[in-house]
Design goal:
A 5-stranded mixed sheet has the order 6-5-12-10-11, covered by helices on one side. It has a 3-stranded antiparallel sheet with strand order 7-8-9, with helices on one face. It has 15 helices and 12 strands. The protein has 390 residues and is α+β, with helices and mostly antiparallel strands. The two termini are 31 Å apart. Helix 1 packs antiparallel against helix 2, helix 1 runs parallel beside helix 3 and helix 5 runs antiparallel to helix 6. It binds COB(II)inamide. COB(II)inamide binds next to helix 3, helix 6, helix 8, helix 12 and strand 8.
């Protein structure tokens, strides 16, 4: 996380938030990250999404530090209120589909709540009912999304109880009912100690910490820690964003702690961060080649091919090799995201949030839990990009 040299914009916000929350003090790194965030804000101001702006506010505002002036001077909290409104307006005109997604809507509510922004809980709470389709992708509960919503709703609940925001008893009851149900859905998604998959477990642990009065745990905690620590040693968290999302939970912190004065409350441990390059977890690429099958799948139509790539190649390399073979069938476009390249179009057909369409990545018929830039392909595998609706 500390060594990544592509810490731009939102990535930086995620990392800065984590460093501050867990009390890792490194002034020059903080300064560098803060600058990147502020530059990104200026260059992409109008294009920045609700969840991105929320992360910026959480990161810059975390642990009572001097960047709070930037938040105030740039009116970031009222801008976030506008972005939140735009999400809801898109839902009203596009079949209940927000501009981005409910993970970002939850991040936005969380940041508005923590920074005492302007929102009416009576108007907002109904969008967070657990049966809302936006918590589900392909009919499956999105654990990341549910957990982020639990954090946001818990902040709201605490604000109501402390009478920081106006609400009636019905709002408080609904908030409690929704938290209970979302926590139960998160707990039901537990498998071998993981909630959802390895990448949703960090945020789920945070959600479970703040709602521990809603359930009883039975030894899962140890199993979770064990599996997460083992996965770290296997290199599962080599992406800086992945590391940034798991670390707060491992240090017993949650995003609801951002308003605390971390330097005294967390009695910062003097971290001895090694800035040596970590040993690469991916095997060194040997000169040998492997061959895989690759298909583009739209409705009933498959365009398939066999491609040869270097051992150690990722899904994206296969897509590039196929595109080189046959541009008409395999051309594609992508966008950069904190998790690496996101495939936006194939054969000129473009994913669209307002229609809930996307290009799903699969291996041997099973959806992948890593993106195109991370998933290392194996010899003989059947890889597929499938035009899908979530
Ligand atoms: N972040 C966001 O807005 C993303 C929120 C998130 C829930 C996110 C996972 C969770 C997180 N911790 O960040 C999310 N993914 C969403 C919302 C989506 C949808 C994006 C469109 C929209 N409405 O905004 C969508 C289309 C359902 C989606 N994710 C698709 C995919 C696939 C991408 C394929 C492609 N076209 O490139 C893919 C690869 C699943 C597949 N088999 O096709 C996918 N997501 C994965 C694997 C992941 C995980 C990444 C893990 C990794 N190591 O790479 C993920 C962490 C994440 C990012 N998606 Co989505 C979920 C997980 O596995 N736990 C906020 C913003 C400020 O940054």
């Amino acid at each position: 996380m500390v060594n990544s040299n592509y810490n731009k914009g939102i990535q930086s916000a995620n990392i800065l938030l984590t460093l501050r929350l867990v009390g890792i003090q490194n002034q020059s790194l903080e300064k560098q990250l803060t600058q990147q965030i502020q530059e990104d804000m200026k260059s992409r101001e109008s294009k920045i999404s609700s969840g991105e702006l929320a992360l910026v506010i959480l990161a810059l505002g975390a642990c009572k530090n001097l960047d709070e002036t930037f938040i105030r001077d740039a009116h970031l909290v009222s801008k976030l209120g506008e972005k939140f409104k735009a999400e809801i307006e898109n839902m009203e005109t596009h079949n209940d589909n927000p501009l981005t997604n409910y993970y970002q809507l939850s991040l936005a509510l969380l940041a508005l709540c923590l920074s005492n922004g302007n929102y009416s809980i009576t108007n907002v709470i109904r969008y967070f009912a657990p049966e809302n389709k936006n918590y589900y992708f392909d009919g499956q509960f999105s654990v990341d999304t549910g957990a982020m919503a639990v954090l946001a709703l818990t902040c709201v609940k605490r604000s109501i109880e402390k009478e920081k925001i106006e609400a009636d008893i019905k709002d408080l009851n609904k908030t409690n009912v929704y938290i209970t149900s979302l926590v139960n859905k998160t707990l039901s998604a537990e498998n071998d100690g993981l909630f959802g998959n390895i990448y949703s477990t960090g945020i789920s642990m945070q959600a479970l910490y703040v709602s521990s009065n809603y359930y009883e745990l039975n030894g899962t905690c140890q199993e979770t820690l064990h599996t997460v620590l083992h996965s770290i040693s296997q290199g599962a968290f080599h992406l800086p964003i992945a590391a940034a999302q798991i670390l707060p939970a491992l240090m017993g912190k949650t995003y609801l702690d951002v308003n605390k004065d971390c330097s005294s409350a967390c009695s910062p441990v003097k971290f001895n961060i090694s800035t040596d390059e970590p040993v690469s977890a991916t095997p060194t690429i040997s000169p040998s080649n492997i061959s895989v099958n690759y298909s583009v799948h739209i409705d009933e139509v498959f365009n398939s091919t066999k491609v040869t790539v270097r051992k150690g190649s990722v899904f994206l390399d296969v897509m590039k090799a196929a595109q080189k073979q046959n541009k008409a069938a395999f051309r594609f476009t992508m966008e950069d995201s904190p998790w690496g390249p996101y495939i936006t179009s194939v054969q000129g057909i473009t994913a669209n949030n307002s229609d809930r369409t996307y290009w799903q990545l699969l291996s041997n018929g099973e959806p992948l839990s890593q993106g195109a830039g991370s998933y290392v392909v194996k010899n003989g595998e059947y890889l597929e990009v499938r035009w899908s609706k979530y």
